[in-house]
Amino acid sequence: MEAFELILLLLAAVILSSVIDQMVPKVSSPLIQIALGLLIALFSLSPVKIVVDPEFFLILFIAPLLFYEAKKANKVSLWKNKKPVVSLAVGLVVATVLIVGFYVNWLIPSIPLAAAFALGAALGPTDAVAVSALSKETSLSPRQKSLLAGESLINDASGIVSFQFAIAAVITGTFSLIDASVSFFVSFFGGIIVGLVIAWVANFALRKARARGLESTTFHVLFELFMPFIVYLAAHFVGVSGILAVVAAGLVMGVSPRGITPSISRLNIVSDSAWQVLSFTLNGVVFVLLGAQLPTAMADTWESIQTDNLLLIGEVLFITFMLLVTRFVWILVMERLEARHLEKKAQRDNERSQDAQSKQGPLHGRHQQAPGTQEAQTAQGDRSMALGAREGSMTTGGLEGAVASSSIGQVVTLGAHAKPQVPTEEAVPSPAPNQQPPEQPHHRLSKQDLLSALVTTL
Question: Does the predicted model carry a pTM greater than 0.85?
Fold first, then answer.
C-alpha cells in the first residue's frame, strides 16, 4: 500500500510540474520537478527511502526514453555530424573519466583512484532531457542542437560501461586496461548489432502483419511501446550494451517506411501522442525521485563532524569547474580541427575546378568554323532566294511574290553569313600555366568560435 501511495504522490508531483512549467516558462521542467521532490522529502511525515535496483531502473526508465529520443531524432543531421557526435559521446566521456578521476584523487587523496574514475563516469554524460530543455530556452544553431542531441543518445552507453568498469575495479581491487578496452568495444558494437537485427525483424513482422490486413492502431502502438524493453533484455542476455541496442533499434524504427494511408496517418498521430505522454511521465518521475533522494544522500556527509561543510562545497565547485573546462577545451579543439578539415576540402575543390578548366581550354579551338563553309552557305542562300522568287511569282503572281521571296532569300543569306555563337576564350577564362591558386586565408579562432564552444559547453 505504501508503494502504491508513493507512486500516486510521484505522479501528482509530475502533473503539478506541468502546470508550474506553463506558469513559469523561464525555469526548465527538470528543475521544477527536482524542487517538488525535495519538498516531498522535507515535509513528508516519514523519511522517503526508495531503493531501486540499477538494472531495473535502466530498463524501466532509461530504455524507453532513449528509444523515443532515437526514434524522433533527425537522422540526416545525425549522419552528417557523425564524427563530432562520436567524438563527444565517446572521446569526451573517456577523457572526462580520466581527467576528473585523476583530479579528484589529487584534490581528495582519501578517495581511491578507481572510485574517482567512477565519479567521472557518472558526471561525464549529458542528459537528453536537459539538452531538450536547454534548446527551448537558449538560441542554438541547428548544428549545435544536432550535436547535443546526438551526443545525449550515445554517451549514456559509454558512461555506463565506464562506470561499471570503475565499480568492478573498486570491488575487486584489480584493473586491466586491455581487458577493459576489449570489453568496451564488444559491448559497444555488439549492442549496436543486436539492436539493428531486432529492429529489422520487428519491421519485417510489422510489414507482414499489414499485408495480412492487421491495421489495428492499438496493436501497433503497443508493439512500439513494447520494443525497447525486449531489445534491452535481449542485449543484456547476450552480454552487450542494452542502451546502445535500444538506441540503434529506435533509429531503425524511426526510418522504416510505412506508406501514406489514412490508417498510417492515424497510427502516427496516436503513436506520437502516446510516446510524448510516456516520455514526460517517466522523465518527471526520475527527476522527482532525484529531488526526494537528495536529503537522504547528503545527510550523512553533511552531518559528519569529520567533514568541513564549507570545504565540501568548495570541492564540489572545483570539480564542477574542472568538468566544464574539460568539456570547453575538448569542444574548442574539435571545432578547430573541423575548421581545418573544411578549409582543406575547399582548397581541394578549388584545385579540381581549376584543373577541369585548364583541360577544357584546348577544346575551344575545335568549335571554330571550317574553311569553305561560309562560301557554301552563301551559295545555298543564293539558290534559296532564286527558288523563292520563282515560286512567289507562280503563286502570288508578280511583284508581291518576288518581294516576299527576295526577303526570304535575304534572311537565309544573312543567316549563312552570320557567325555561329560558340564559347570564346573570354567566356571561359583558362588560367595561365604558371598561375597559382589563390591562397586560402588562414583560419583563426574568432569570437564566434569561442562563443559557439562556450554555448555548447553550458
Answer: no
